[in-house]
Queue: 4 jobs
Job 1
Amino acid sequence: EDPSLERHFKGHRDAVTSVDFSPNKKQLASGSMDSYLMIWSMKPQMRAYRFVGHKDAVLCVHFSPSGHLVASGSRDKTVRLWITSAKGESTVFKAHTATVRSVHFSSDGQSLVTASDDKTVKVWTVHRQKFLFSLSQHINWVRCARFSPDGRLIVSASDDKTVKLWDKTSRECIHSFCEHGGFVNHVDFHPSGNCIAAGGTDSTVKLWDVRMNRLLQHYQGNSVVNSLSFHPSGNYLVTASNDSTLKILDLLEGRLLYTLHGHQGPATCVAFSRDGDLFASGGSDEQVMVWKTNFDAADYGDVVKPQKYGSSVDGTHGTGVEMDCGIHHKKTKTQDSGRTHEQQEEDTSLANTLEHIMGQLDVLTQTVSILEQRLTLTEDKLKECLENQQKIIQNKTN
């Protein structure tokens, strides 16, 4: 069955720049040039929240692993961490000296990586938003930065036409991939952590093996690639392009699988849900669209297999091409045979409880940060009042 348009959301007043599903798929966050963050409910007839705070375009959004926080980055040079409740409370910090283009939580929810037009990538703690370190070898705007699934690596994409791979511990650039012929708009890690994919203004999508630092696949399209997202199985990639289309690439076969038309004007962003059942897209037409993937689970396969050279329809060509990222998604029956149904249910229940506790800790931490910011503002106002009073008294005595 082909992917199908499930629903679309209207509420933004300018181009949509970024979309991300909450881990439980109950909410969808979107950022826009209209300076607002929107949180859409996936339940029918539930109202959306418009979060006001940024003073300029919101260029990136990302849910924390617990789903209780959303990070957003803006042209106002700040990053905000929002609690996803009706109140729309947030803490704000000046993250960069120029536009913030990218925000991304680590898989443990403890760190945040940001990328900016100030040519740097920065890493922060989520708790109290403490600055940890900066990565600064790019020589032009940095459009995108992502943690690897295990949190040990960071990848960044820049207008200097390079994709850089960084070691988070040593803070050194391990490798620069220089095959793009234009600005690199977006980059992300394969779910296995062994590969990366990037798309840019040269209308190509390229996949590299980060262990061997070599090009695995290359897709030549007809239009600027603005965004991409891996399906959680690792076997598919969806892209959003300036020609208004979304394209789904089959990484096993090295070919274009679908071209989807929906947006009027450039498709600016796209993201799969955490389980891969849905993907969302945003465009310059101010719309957010939600699509049902409709992939057959049997298509996910055990491993991304080596593929042959090939080309495909619609101007997209896949070449070069061993793609063995070492993913094993299907469980064999023997793996679970020694465990009772009750034990599995207990494990699931415990995991859910721990996840809930972590989520509540996120919210508590964020609430404390918000209160601290308010106290600081109150102290500053009190100091200002006292200074004004002292000036009045001095003027009177003079």
Job 2
Amino acid sequence: MKCFNHYGGYLCLPRSASVIPAPEPPITPTETNPCPLGYEPQGDTCVDINECEREEHDCQPSQECINTLGAFTCQCPDGYRKVGTECIDIDECRYRYCQHRCVNVPGSFSCQCEPGFQLAGNNRSCIDVNECDMGAPCSQRCYNTYGTFLCRCDQGYELGPDGFACNDIDECSYSSYLCQYQCVNEPGKFSCVCPEGYQLQGTRLCQDINECETGEHQCTDTQTCVNIHGRYQCVDSNRCQEPYVQVSENRCVCPVNKPVCRDLPFSIVHRYMSITSERSVPSDIFQIQATSQINNISAMLVLARAVSGPREYTLDLEMVSVNPLLSYQGNYQTSSALRLSIYVGPLWRNMLLIPHPQFQSMPTAEAVKVTPVGD
């Protein structure tokens, strides 16, 4: 190889090669510019040359050409920085410009917020979103919190598994003691109902209705209305049977001038009472008492076995009085009877219901001898 000198270096060519120098370009005379560099004459004055418009600049494609008086400059656009002769994108996210999340894009960046927040007016900060004012899917009540929201339910409802829907609570299924008789579930609440013949006392208890006092009975003028548990009974106003005659309400007397009355109680007083079915036993249900100048004698009518209703029992409670002062004439004694009609109410789910106030106290009567008459 043969070495040939060259501008700024050299060439290695085969020895048989020859170098033919290019002819020198002809020198053409140029017009003389009377204006300074970067200006051109215009009439009698010199005006600036806009190298950027004429594309007479050497700015890189990533640079912007900025014309100046008599010259130009090459600058990087916003969001870029100059490295050597090139413009490289600036990663603004490295400088933590955003409160939550920063997304870098060529020449710029954007801020994004976490769910439950939105960009503030400065496009960098994040402010809480009130989801409750923006149609949060809560079926009843919505409470805004920082970055999110909570759904809550009205009384009588519970929040569903999705956290939005409110489902009715069946209070009746939680306890059998909410109501004295029967519990009825309703949307968001419950109510207590009573059996026929009873009315609700307060919100949970059942009390017997005295149909005889309220006039809600169908007894005739010749009958007497007797209030019993959950209902009423119409009885004849005059229940005296021969040889007895009625002397007052519920009282019958056997006249002494009738021979048949000698072996019968002098008087019979009719009384009525009511008890509930399946009453616990033994249970005292009626007290009888006799008062004299010598001593006081009392006895108790006891329920020995459970009874179920509706059913009616009638018992005669006889009081026998012996007068010792007249013993010289023989054993002088008189008797009177209390005819007690006991009405057993129907059985309602083995629940103890509140009787009417007339049933609150245990009846008493004057007598010393108890004689059951029959069912």
Job 3
Amino acid sequence: MISFKQLPVEAKAAVAAGVVFFSMVLSRSYLAEKLDFRTRRWLLRLQMALFANTLMLMGSLHVWRSTVTTFTRSSAASSFCFMLWKIAVFMFLALAHSSFFTLLFLVAEEPYFFSLAAYTCLGAYIILIFFLFTLGSVEQAYKFLAGRGAKAGTGNKSRTALKPVLAVLLTVVLTAVGLLNASQPPTVNSVEIPVHKLPSTMNNLKVVLLSDIHLGPTVGKTKLAMIVRMVKALKPDITVIVGDLSDAEAKIIRPAVEPLGELDSPLGTYFVTGNHEYYTSDVSNWFELLKSFNIQPLHNENVKIVSPKSASDWFCLAGVDDIEADVLRYSGHGMDLKKALRGCSSEHAIVLLAHQPIAAKWALQDRPDINLILSGHTHGGQIFPLNAGAYLLNPFFVGLYQVGQNTFVYVSPGTMYYGIPMRLGSRAEITEITLRSP
């Protein structure tokens, strides 16, 4: 029987990841009610950071072998430039691994340079892993098809060296493009949506949709102030924020949230939780902070949006807690559609705020009379190659979907980004929605 010491490093990392994941399951299932609030919050974040790092370790070993070990037998291996390259690769991997710990130690009103660098390296790490794997697979397929699997020669050696060089070059180019794209202000996407049973007096009502701002290690007050200025310029009747506003506790990041107090939509500003609100384990404090800025959380509840032209004309605006609250066993929270829609009948139009598209799907299965659901969460994949995974994992990906004759779902690609300050194959968006009366 093989002992743990005899296992290859990749296998040891996989075992470590399994142990951390098992500890996460145990703490969520058996320790959630026994630990105090602060301890539970830190334990969850530490476990998530350790789990991500143990998984990344397997990829980091592959990166090191592909970009460093491959060249150790070459004539340039003893040169000063190669020594600098080894240091650069090591620092790159170290920064990528450290990114997950910045949530614990480096969150303030504005991002620290170290956090921006660490998350940039994480984004480049994901892209590099993808290209190393893809080019390696192409190489193996070529060898198989050419019938050269057992042959070795100068050509094979040159192709082996070319693979990491090409992967690094592609990563550098795409990282630069992604950083440039994410540094631009969000685009304003104007959408018209017919809403069944919307009163004629509320025709052309303007709703601005924000989602996934992710205040935290790489998004701070300056970017939020820019978003608020753009929203105010649109002069919406209603502003809604559908989750993942922040990745930090309310007390720590309060100064960065202050621009939200300038939102002044005449029919109100509303908020529902996303999964990251529950990762902060600070939802109650966030609710209180948002209320101080005249932003109303919809905690499995609804409000009547009354027409400015006629007090008898209204529609129901409802919001549900994010489904992650159930997974985390977050006390007093969890998606409760029945409670959220209490008093909302099919005689009036119903608009639902639900952070995750899967929650939108579940809601429509229970209440097909919902006319419009506004969601976020997917980020449009945010960066290549994560786009494909986000597309496959969500029933609605990005943009407007018609479900049935009188129901629509709109999924925002996010107003900022999570952690990695990059966008590839997606664009940050502020959505200007005009509601049309049929």
Job 4
Amino acid sequence: LLLSLPAVTSPCNILKCNSEYLAATSGSHHPGTEEVPEFCTALRAYAHCTRSTARTCRGDLAYHSAVHGIDDLMVQHNCSKDGPTSQPRLRTLPPGDSQERSDSPEICHYEKSFHKHSATPNYTHCGLFGDPHLRTFTDSFQTCKVQGAWPLIDNNYLNVQVTNTPVLPGSTATATSKLTIIFKSFQECVDQKVYQAEMDELPAAFADGSKNGGDKHGANSLKITEKVSGQHIEIQAKYIGTTIVVRQVGRYLTFAVRMPEEVVNAVEDRDNQGLYLCLRGCPLNQQIDVQTFRSPQATEGRTRRKGPVLPAAPEAFTYETATAKCREKLPVEDLYFQSCVFDLLTTGDVNFMLAAYYAFEDVKMLHSNKEKLHLYERTRDLSAGNAAPSRRPQALLALWAALLCLSQWWSVLL
């Protein structure tokens, strides 16, 4: 229900609330008996902060995660909702805390724990990039509108939500401006962690400032690694055999994930399993036919249309110049190449060419079936043409049989 809410345009300050709570507790999630009153005070201050930003955070997964987390901690430590809300600073953890833990236990390593006596698990891939283009876990490739907040992944282990906004005022082209990933608490491996990225802000840490799964013994089975500062991060969730890559290319974000089929299908409510994009794709009314953008005539029509879309863009591409530009990075004319052409025609921004290029680079790294790296459209016209000759003789034979029966019927009457 939360995922269907429209995107909130006002600033959501949940990250500020998270950081203030972290500063007050110094990362301690399991205070001693003597520290409980101070811990409860910090929780009440945290709750007060979330209430103050509730209106602007209605559709934000990190906000709702924080609210539920506060309620759970209140109950766990018998904290009263009434009381002081000044923010004392609890004692820090001793040296060798969760950020420097040793190797995780076996249960926190997916391939070791879940498949100890069976074959290697089947891995799937999902990616979202550009204007935006979606590759689902079943290798379906779509170009979508999906403006606002949409769920990408929703299973027993994690939730991923993206927010897509218009590239330019008045434009129908949208791109991903915000990404929220919630890793749910799992056994003795990880605490619940929230990662959130926005345009021009690609953190190399979770929302609470940590870079791993928290205070549990298997905390290092969830880790963030910064590959390129402000441009490329990678999240390894070994306890569920999952790798996530998030990039900022130009102003917008791209997302790619490698996940075992067992994790993909781990849902409690199977009736609602198809509500997220990576599994079922975009709704039909949100899909765009990119074929209409490939002819020179269509390109000329778009350059003449009213509105600020192309005139305000860095460069106005024709179909020929767009294809030439995309071939510089994507020599194979597959759906990634076609997506690149589509994005250059609709936005004029060469960064979308780089988004398609990096999306394919992520596929090469994450997809388990190297024969399915390139995707091509089905040739519907060719298949229909091949079927037509086989149907025509059958139709003529049926007509001849009908005429023969009719002639015999007339002969009986006469």
